[in-house]
Design goal:
Helix content: over 70%
Order of helices and strands: HHHHHH
Amino acid sequence: MRTHRDVAIATVQAVGAPAVVVALWLLLVHVDFPTTPTAAVVAIAALIAAGIVAVILTMWWRVGGFRNDRALHRWVRNGPEPQSVSPAIRLRFLRRLERRSVAFGRLYLVLAGLWLLLAFVGALYHDSALVLNVVTAGCWLCLGIDSIAFGKRWGGRVDHLVEETTAQLQDAARL
């Protein structure tokens, strides 16, 4: 059974994320490339939105749908073990979360700093890619903060669940 909260989360993921990225794309084109034909801008915006929706739907499909994805996220955050998801899919999901570590978060912050430096230098020389560099730096900054916060809060739990799920798979293989 879907709750109103789950429907809201699905809507934000499948509609909100592409809308924000397309809005940033349109801002970039308007500021940095004002002579770009409208048809090209709209076509690229549509491709960007379709690509993001495809990535989100693929992520849900890989774990058996949106409900399984939500169940796995609740499980990582000290929720009940999702019985509807096989251990192999759980392990694949957990491996993806392992990559959201503090080390990668720090790397993302370094990349954000580099892009801010590019933006600063570009501003000194009146570079037309200023908006692009600032938006890119902001994206790296958000990814870095999210990865560090997730790694510090849930990294230990993810490691424990990986060990537990790996043991379950090994026990099942022995039978």
